[in-house]
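In pairs, describe these two lines:
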Amino acid sequence: MQAGYPGYWKDLPYSLEVEKINEQVKKNNNKKQDSTFIAVSKRQQVRTPVTGNKSLAASSIDNLVSVLKPDQLKQCGLAYINNGIVRTIVDRSVYFINPERTDFVIEPNDELTTGLDDEEIKKIEQQIQDDTLTGDNGKSLNIKELRRKLVRINKRVRLHSALDKLLASTLIFGRGALQIVKFPNTINEEDGTNIKGEPRALKHLSSLRIKNIIADEQTGQFKGLEYDDGKPTQTGPKRYTSDQLIVGFNDDYNVLDNSNFSGLSAVWPVLEAANTIDVILAEDMPEVARQGWSKFGFLYAGTSKKSTINRLKEELEAGTFIVHNEQALTADVHDLSLDPMKLINVVVGLAKHMSIGMNLPLFMLFEDTANFATANQVMQVYKTGVLTRYRTWLQGILEDYWYDPILADHLGIDVKDVISAPIRIKAIFQDINFETRLDIITADEKLQNMMVFTNVDTAKDIDRKDIANRLQLEQNEINKAVFMQRNQDIAEQVAANKQGKPFQKKVDSSGQQPGKQSKVPSK
């Protein structure tokens, strides 16, 4: 082709475009084709880092750090809601710490009994029982009235159920709080003194709404907290002082810098295990169930007729045998199902990990153990170790925030002076026995033979309060009769001595002294 012939400039652009197209085709043929298969993305279950909701470098005693962020605390709460194992562990821990209605006992203060022998301590305890103990000013402490007041207040505020909520929140979120709602103060008409209102209710505060903790700058003691009650205010979160609250902090050891009163969630260390179990039960197990009854495969019908293909499809969905005359009909079947027991074993293993991580014996979660003796020993260790520690911790909470203020109001002193008061109020919990009733009776029988236990003690051990009360009343009547007879003998002895006559004890027709029981010979 020579330049200048007619139509040259007209044909030139077209030839160049053809060459461009040919070059692009060569490039496409040489280019490596990407696979149309893509990998299934893995589930992201990694926990976010624990950094708190404030910078550690800027934290101070008046700007305390919360170990977990609000969204992390919410994850712990969702785990309690969604995961049955987490809920079971938390609930059983709460039930063992606070099994029945919380009780109390009024006893001598340690300062009053230090250096005294057993007889002197028993004398003070008897004075408390008889309500004859007086204070430094010589006035009666009105202990009977204090007992009635405590029983009335505990029933009114439903202390037991409120403590269950406090314990659950503290274990799940690391800290929990109850607001003490009180009646208004009144004026005593006789002397014009101010009478503080009794507690009216215990209002459970949401741990997720606790914003900041207020602590004393010098002592580091808890002074109060800031709480977001959801109401629009111009002054910010509402403030509660320590005398308005009952608060609990779990494992509050100040692990991070200035993380006092943050507490550590018992759920957070096992959160990944709980999430894994939720995924297995919600996604994997249903998929295994769907694939367990049928196979996955490719079927070539041997024909292109839609009617034949649809008929074969209907027969396959029905799961019946197919009789056909299609020579080209072929099937390629693959078994993609998994053994469901493998997933169940994973769930069981994770549940054991969660039980150990949350301080609950495996026997409490997996009750099908074959060795009762071993399980009993494990429970005894749990009782004397973990359970005793939790109960001691709860006793301190109740005495500091509940019983000490009530005692201070009753005695008319400041709370800080309760430490030197003649009496104190101590929270007590029902003892938990893992032995059978036969084991308890056998052990108590030996103690009775050693003159250590009485019938009343045994009845209390087997939780028969009705029998214990009856036996106690019978014993009181016997002791009263013996005491009266002894006083009568002493009076008659004194009268006989004055008259110079020998004294003879009176006996009844059976030859026994009044008030004495005849012994029945053993067979």
Observations:
- The longest helix spans residues 372-411.
- Confidence is low (pLDDT under 50) at residues 33-43, 53-58, 515-523.
